Amino acid sequence: MPTFALILPAAGKSTRFGGPKSKLLQQLDGQSVIARSLAPYLQRADLARVMIPCANPESVCPLLPTDARIHFCIGGETRAHSVLSALKHVPVDIEWVAVHDAARPLISPELIEQTFIAARQHGAAVPAMPVALTIKQADGPLPAQVLQTVPRHALWAMQTPQFMRRADLLEAFNRCPIPLDQVTDDVQLLELIGKPVWLIPGEERNLKITTAVDVALAHWWLAK
After folding, report:
1. What is the CA 84 to chain-centroid distance, rounded?
2. CA–CA separation, 26 vs 215, rounded Å?
3. Residue 18 has what pLDDT?
């Protein structure tokens, strides 16, 4: 059975969430957001290591179960910098890595499994949801004139986990043709150097906590 390492970026400042406490520390039915995001992965025998890049491990560690696979490292100024920091701590004998948003607490074990299967078939895989809104292109900030309506039939909103080979992700970082602060998700790095990335159907409940409204929605999903 191939093993994988999980990278759980947790160095963000939660600026859009507001309030004195990080969104990752919010409670959902007695568990923190970050603990719920991690829990389904810890159930897997093929999980070899967890790397959590963050600014303050002391605030996160007490919220997580005791597990020898969990390690911390210093996060970076952007998500990509944090993922790179964690990737450097993944042993070379672990072939696969998964990057999962620490603020996606409702990920299902089934979606993790389906994404890993697709990655082993195609090299890299990500769950995605169809874009339901009409998308207009305009030069912001608003008010601004509409330039065009972007056809949405080919647009997909990314979720996590994003599974790929450790060596491919490291190569992509080394060859990245744009500044890392312009990288908005992890498999984009592979796309930029011409490596294939496949999408599989995501889950509506696999939401990302960004604002307080998302916390309320997560409570609703848990009650449902």
Report:
1. 13
2. 8
3. 56
Per CATH, the architecture of 4-125+160-223 is what?
Alpha-Beta Complex (3.90)
Mean pLDDT in consecutive groups of 10 residues from the start of the chain, 224 residues:
95 60 90 97 98 92 94 95 98 98 98 98 98 95 96 96 98 98 96 98 97 95 94
Q: What is the pTM of this model?
A: 0.94
* Strand 31-32 relative to strand 47-54, pairing: unpaired
Cβ pair 127, 159 in contact under 8 A:
yes
Q: Considering only CA atoms, give the Rg of the chain.
A: 18
Torsion of the alpha carbons at 165, 169, 175 and 178, rounded to the nearest 10:
140
Q: Tokens 């620490």 correspond to what residue?
A: 102
In 3-state terms the chain splits into helix, strand, coil percentages (rounded to 5) of 35, 25, 45
Residue 161 and residue 97 in contact, taking contact as beta carbons nearer than 8 Å: no
Helix intervals (H) in the chain: 33-42, 57-60, 79-87, 109-122, 166-175, 187-192, 212-223
Residue entry with tokens 């900030």: 141
